[in-house]
Amino acid sequence: MNSSGQTVHVDLGSRSYEISIDAGNLPRITELTRLWMGRSPNQALRCFVVTDTNVLHPHANAVKLALSDAGAEVQVVCVKAGEASKSLAEASDLYDELVDFRADRKTVVLAVGGGVVGDLAGFVAATYARGLLFVQVPTTLLAMVDSSVGGKTGVNHPKGKNLIGSFYQPAGVLVDTDTMATLPDREYRSGLAEVIKYGVIQDAEFFAYLENNVAGLNERDPAVLNHVVGRCCELKAQVVKEDEHETTGGRAILNYGHTYAHAFEVLAGYGALLHGEAVSIGMVCGSRLAKSLGRIGDDEIQRQVELLKAVHLPVEVSQELQAKPDDILKCMQLDKKTVSGDLKFVLPDRIGHVETIGGIDSKVIVDCLAG
Ligand code: NAD
Ligand code: GLY
Predict the structure, then answer these.
(1) Residue whose CA is closest, atom 5 of ligand 2?
(2) Of 114, 129, 231, 369, whose CA is between 20 and 30 Å from 175?
(3) Does domain 6-182 have CATH number 3.10.20.30?
């Protein structure tokens, strides 16, 4: 595959790191891990690779082979694919494996997989021995453009998603866009919702690029994927640089569409809607809400709807969910981003720019469930 690699810098002072993006990038894992750990080729390298049952073959095995061929000692631990693995019980099993591996501060934890593996392995790396070096190797589009960047790690509590966790930046992120070749279509399209989100919240030119490259997006054209992943990582890096620990509200713009989406995911039953599918519908509701408040016109809604539909994402709230406006409101109130009961929405005032708005009447919020 032609190399059109790029490196995005996440600028966070002493916690800065690189995201290396290319097709066919996996074989560089040893060289880049050594570079990011500050270890020379003649120093020992001990690697603890966490992956899941769908990613083990071929991707985690390829990482293991590349590392061991270069003389590293490698332990691979494979968790069951799926959100249920993001648990304290699974983290505890990984701590046991790390003890058996005699992991110390010179051991690097590598997450090879989607957001579930990245969040779980990152949390374990953050907490074992008060912090092991951590490298992300994301293999879903969502993980490449979102979860592997920015240092949010964690596991779920039975009563809430991502309730246990910490901010812990990786030492580096290696993206091989070729790993998406095995990604199921629905998972790939779910990641595209987050890609489109970046265009709406931060970059009108990127949004137009997506509109002009629908065929490339649908065919997973390598050049289009490379550009898309690179630009999304740059955009997320800007947001994280401004508000690493989510204290100023700047990072909240990443939640465009997510307040509605959270309620849709919960009420449809976890798994019925993939996260990106819920976000797609949530962005449409969010843009209708922006129109109700006089912030945008029909054209801005229509452009989003057309693009989401063109990449085969859902854009309408099901009849079943539309019939439950009170449940939707209740669910939104429980979202941990809600402050003192006042629902906050990230809303566009044009394509490429959003603001966080509160104090919206509940009726206006639920009226936007239907077009
Ligand atoms: P995931 O990790 O469950 O991956 C989706 C599915 O694709 C899984 O079945 C997985 O086994 C499979 N898969 C992964 N890579 C594959 C490949 N290359 N080929 C074939 N199958 C592959 O889900 P996700 O969508 O990547 O991530 C969702 C998780 O990320 C959620 O837990 C969410 O909370 C978290 N998240 C975290 C952040 C953050 O900032 N840390 C941001 C967004 C989402
Ligand atoms: N995915 C939201 C964030 O990283 O803040």
Answers:
(1) 251
(2) 129
(3) no
Candidate from 119, 146, 243 with most ligand 2 atoms within 8 A of CB, to mutate: 146
Residues 111-149 have pLDDT tens digits of 999 999 999 999 999 999 999 999 999 999 999 999 999
DSSP annotation string for 62-100: HHHHHHHHTT-EEEEEEEPSSGGGSBHHHHHHHHHHHHH
pTM beyond 0.70: the answer is yes
Ligand nearest to the CA of 173: 1
Between CA 208 and CA 199 the distance in angstroms is 8
DSSP 3-state assignment of 273?
A: strand
- Residues marked active site are found at 130, 152, 194, 236, 246, 251, 255, 258, 262, 275
> Per-residue pLDDT tens for 17-33?
999 999 999 999 999 99
Domain range annotation of the chain: 6-182, 185-367
Residues with CB under 6 A from ligand 1: 52, 54-55, 59, 81-83, 86, 113-117, 119, 139-140, 142-143, 146-147, 150, 152, 162, 179-180, 182-183, 187, 275
CA–centroid distance, residue 118 to ligand 1 (Å)? 8
185-367 topology per CATH: Dehydroquinate synthase-like, alpha domain (1.20.1090)
Give the distance between the most distant pair of CA atoms in the chain: 65
